[in-house]
């Protein structure tokens, strides 16, 4: 992404020479409790998150009512899976509370809607952007609805092929929405380092011509830091205030100290990357004078002597005539007597 493509997401600029936005993905780690959700939002803001994200769904619209499985919260009990997600639903009034609280904290909050009803509600409540989960990369009717909303979109690409990503982008863009960030993602919880394939970030950026970030499900911050060094404009990681809390995503979520460390590291990455222009640093100037080489007399050279290469060696320090100017010196005459092992400077040459 070049400088002309620099854009604004949730009031924050992204692009070249910018540290990635850190999105604290609370998801449904709030366990259906709006007070816990607000507590997590405040903690994320205090720990350095740029943006907070939730997940919004209607359990009965997400999973077939005929699907049974072991209860993730009670492994020895079988339930209908849509009932599991219903435990974590938040009603509209709770989202009103959350968005109001986030405005007071001055931290943007957006969400991943998993159905049209949730999308409409979030847009009506003034959500500043829309996240589309990897599982909906091929849900083309929903992607068209998302594009129609006219808000900035973050699209995760876990489990996706390049062809599926292209089709998804077309579905969004057919509604005139070009404000899209793609997140590379490995849909394994937790993802392993050997699966991350972060070299694809640059290739995705070139192929799809949109800003690229990372939705990171690894257990540490290393992949996120590497992604930042590769130009990711956004890093999303699951967040909780305590991994010991009940809930299926708590164990794969980072805690406040880890979020703070990630934020610090990504800012340091940006400092380390710099502006990309090769230049001599101020701190190198003194080293340059002592460590580089100069012309040094091998022998005593009398004044008016025609200078030849045999009369010089190239030694430290670099305070005299540099090796690159040796040819300019040869054939000239010594202005004064130059003693053996003396560093030769221009004022010694006629």
The mean pLDDT is: 96
Question: Pairing-aware structural class of the strands and helices?
Answer: alpha/beta
- Taken as a percent bin, the fraction of beta residues is 15-25%
Q: Order of strands across the biggest sheet?
A: 7-4-3-12-11-10-9-8
What are the low-pLDDT stretches, counting only 5+ consecutive residues below 50?
1-5
Order of helices and strands: EEEHEHEEHHEHEHEHEHEHEHHEEH
Radius of gyration: 30 Å
Q: How many beta strands in the DSSP annotation?
A: 14
Please tally the helical runs, counting DSSP H or I stretches of 4 or more residues: 12
Please outline the major beta sheet.
8 strands, parallel
Q: Looking at the structure, what is the overall shape? A: elongated
Q: Helicity level, as a percent range?
A: 25-40%
Distance separating the two termini? 54 Å
């Amino acid at each position: 992404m070049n400088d002309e493509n620099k854009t604004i997401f949730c009031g924050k600029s992204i692009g070249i020479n910018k540290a990635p936005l850190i999105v604290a993905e609370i998801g449904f780690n709030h366990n259906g409790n709006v007070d816990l959700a607000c507590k997590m939002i405040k903690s994320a803001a205090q720990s350095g998150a740029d943006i907070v994200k939730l997940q919004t769904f209607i359990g009965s619209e997400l999973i077939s009512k005929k699907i049974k499985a072991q209860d993730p919260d009670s492994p020895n009990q079988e339930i209908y899976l849509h009932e599991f997600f219903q435990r974590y639903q938040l009603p509209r009034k709770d989202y009103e509370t959350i968005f109001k609280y986030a405005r007071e904290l001055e931290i943007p909050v957006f969400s991943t809607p998993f159905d049209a009803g949730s999308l409409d509600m979030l847009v009506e409540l003034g959500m500043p952007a829309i996240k589309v989960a990897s599982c909906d990369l091929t849900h083309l009717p929903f992607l068209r609805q998302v594009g129609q909303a006219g808000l900035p979109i973050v699209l995760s690409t876990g489990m996706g092929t390049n062809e599926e990503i292209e089709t998804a982008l077309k579905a969004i863009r057919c509604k005139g929405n070009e404000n899209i960030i793609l997140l590379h993602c490995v849909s394994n919880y937790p993802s392993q380092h050997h699966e991350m394939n972060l070299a694809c970030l640059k290739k995705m950026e070139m192929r799809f011509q949109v800003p690229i970030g990372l939705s990171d499900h690894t257990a540490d911050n290393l992949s996120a830091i590497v992604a930042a060094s590769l130009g990711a404009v956004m890093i999303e990681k699951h967040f909780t205030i305590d991994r010991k809390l009940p809930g299926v995503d708590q164990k794969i979520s980072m805690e406040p100290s880890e979020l703070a460390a990630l934020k610090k590291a990504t800012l340091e990455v940006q400092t380390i990357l710099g502006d990309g222009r090769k230049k001599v640093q101020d701190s190198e100037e003194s080293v340059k004078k002592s460590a580089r080489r100069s012309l040094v007399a091998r022998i005593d050279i009398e004044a008016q002597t025609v200078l030849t290469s045999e009369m010089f060696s190239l030694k430290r320090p670099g305070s005299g005539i540099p090796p690159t100017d040796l040819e300019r010196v040869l054939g000239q005459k010594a202005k004064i007597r130059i003693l053996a092992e003396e560093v030769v400077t221009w004022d010694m040459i006629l």
